[in-house]
């Protein structure tokens, strides 16, 4: 005998309009939940959770020396994240900013490596310009394969990052290796005029922070006030409507990837011309991947990205502090960063969707 009955199952229903307050609360709530969850991890590892949280989240703001290092890390994170966010809002997912960052550093390093005796205030601006061009050219490879062969830009850009890392290894182990560097894989030290100016005496904070602030203002104007930015947003939100209106998808892909690549390349150039002062394999520090977290944690909004970049920079410095003072492994620091992005994305899902209980009929045999 068969019988039918109804069951009530939860489903996600998109909200007609997401709450502005909920959007603002999503990042801090995600941070709080991340802290609570990771506290359990630290306890399971046998670490003092209070010492870890103090080192990671409080100590970076405790002194000017520590906070200046936070500002130093904020520069590249903010530059890359603002560039990526423009593409993300257009649904063009550039995951290869790390490779574009490396290539930008390589292009910028060509001047002091090939002309070590050159002098003049033109050197560091030329390095930044070359780095910007290098990052954009590297991103253009992804755009080309996306347009011509419909290759997935996520995979292409990500794979090109590994190619860029190997190119860096080749140069530092071969033609660009410092002959007096005791066999270390690094270039010669750059001359004084190849170094970007310092903003605050006694710190390592340089003009890259001003460049990042300028790019943030430009990104806001571009996305909120320009017709080109409007076309990118429409293309991301409603591709069919954008196509009907005459907006070309290929144009959006090229523009998004070139902007993201140029920003990442500029950040790479500022890194070698700033705190490093030479081209090293350690230039690949994960800024390109961390900037993805920064972009989404900031809600893909230029103003929100400024705040999230400071938070992520503080986690970088705090993570180093925790490894020293609380004996925390680097893997735990990366787990904190990754879980922060995951929990934020979950929070955003509840901002955009609500749970609705819908009855569904089912049939059983007895």
From TrEMBL:
Membrane-traversing stretches: 24-45, 51-72, 92-116, 122-147, 154-173, 205-223, 253-274, 286-319, 331-353
InterPro entries xrefs: ABC_transp_permease
Keyword Transmembrane helix set for record: yes
Transmembrane helix among keywords: yes
UniProt topology in membrane: Multi-pass membrane protein
Keywords from the UniProt entry: Cell membrane, Membrane, Transmembrane, Transmembrane helix
Main location per the UniProt record: membrane
Subcellular location: Cell membrane
GO cellular component, one term: plasma membrane
MF GO annotations: transmembrane transporter activity
Name of the protein described by the UniProt record: ABC transporter permease
